[in-house]
Please model this.
Amino acid sequence: MTGRSRGGIVLWASRDLLRRPADALLMWLCLAATAAVLSTALLLTQAVSDTACRILSAAPSLVVRRVDSGGWSPLPVAEAVSRLRSIPGVVSVRPRLWGPASTENGPVTVVGILPGGARQDAIAPPAQGGARVGPGVAVRDGRLLLGAAGRSFTVLERLPPDTAMVSHDLVLLNWHDAGEVLGIPPGFASDLAVGVYHPQEAEVLVPEIAAALPWPVTITTRTEAEAAYSGPSFRRGSLALLAFSPGLLAMLLLVALTIRERVSRKEEIGLFRAIGWTTADLLRLHLVRALLIAVPGVLAGMVAAYGLVFRQGISWPSRILLGWPRPAPQLFLDPSGALQVLASIGALILLPYLAAALAPVLWAGLSDPRDLLEKGR
Amino acid sequence: MNGKLRCRQVSLVFTNGAGQEKTVLRSVDAVFAAGAVSVVSGANAAGKSTLLHLLGGILRPTSGEVIWDGQPVSRWTAHHRDRWRRRVGIAFQKVYLMEDLTALENVMVPLIPRGIPVREMKRRCMGALEQSGAADLAPEPVRSLSGGQRQRICIARAVVGDPEVLLADEPAAHQDPEGARQIKSLLLDAAGRGATVIVAAPSGDRLFSGDEQTRRLALEHGALRTSP
Model:
């Protein structure tokens, strides 16, 4: 096919759409709405998973927590660190101090920062009586009342919004203040972050670490943490897809309507073939015509979905789909995740729609033009 | 006779909804000369339109063959017959125009997939409309036209691709004398350019009467015979 005949067919397909502008507009709107509904569900679950993986890639290989009959309990730092450092393959042991604390506006997560952290990107601890808070923590007059005793802290800064996925409800205090608020005595920590020489083989060290410590402990690997985080999101995402089955039903309806509309134009297909159009020409015409509606429609739907998922301040998609009570944090989408969503939308919407647009032309190609002209009447 | 288009033992049997068979054409043998007009006349429902549809490749015979340039066109696959139909122009009796499009757009349809630039397409279409005496109707929506005007648009659509075979089914049925004269002239011009022109006409039609170079055939009871 030459470029000129392609141009002629594109022009004619555009003219054909304008013959029934209301039908074309309605079809465009339906495709855009269906794409928006399905893309929102897919993008949200994919973005949560991608963001979690991105954050957890910086997490320690292993986290060790002491447990007893009442739940978790603080670890004596000096003893635990010296025992773990003696295990071959362990390259770092970092005590962490954290836990829930109450405020006037609900619970927050308090984290104690050790002075002189080994990591280059470690956050400097705030001065005694000061706090750095996450984007979701409510502050009154620059102060924050923490714990059952209602100890007052001066808020020194807010953590940037792009860290919201991990810092949404965080209150960073210096190590000493955090211990006081959480009721953990000096020399003890909530858990230990353990770095290993070969992160891929962290699971091998789990029994050795458990045996090296004199208390019962739970040890979580990074892989387990990733699974624990993304698993429920995916389950909720699947539920969301089921909840949006009306979107899929709408798609089926669109497919049925498209087939019916094309079949009703059987006489026209017969006429075109009778005056020199080949079945291939007709397929090209109907493909271009369908693409002229479907591509802008699906793109518009996906752009709307992108705005709903990634634009800050819009909370209802995550509230409905994932059950998050507060505005969603800043989410990220990896290129592979974006491609996955594009492929899913293509498979769910574009393929059935294009198939519905082309199948009647293919069927008509099997009949003699005269039969189509007569039956179309 | 120098004929590229011929029928060999062509028969067509239709089966109606009740399962009864009706023979429309019975072992038709004919050769249609290139560069001349052949007029096939017959009573209503004699099978004239069906014969034209068989010759134009939009219908297959029940038995026998339609042959073009030595090739059995009626046996070809749908794909090859689709391509061959670009050499054929058909002016249908029922016209089959797209009512919501303009006359010019209707005439343009056969040229769309042929890779002709839009300006050239318009020029050819206006030429065809002029030949059929309908140039002034080019911008008019077809739904606003009379029966005779629609027939001219249909004829313009048939000739716009300079076909090697031109089939016209009762082309002057709705025309006044001047319109009929124009259409006759158009068909003779096409024959003059070397096209095989076949016209279906009702019995007693006088469109080509007195024309020495026109070959007359009569279709009666499904059989074709040369007419005086």
Remarks:
- Chain A touches chain B at residues 1-2, 4-5, 7-9, 11-12, 15, 19, 267-268, 270-281, 284, 365-366, 368-371, 373 (CB under 8 Å).
- Chain A has 13 helices and twelve strands.
- Residues 21-56 of chain A form the longest helix (36 residues).
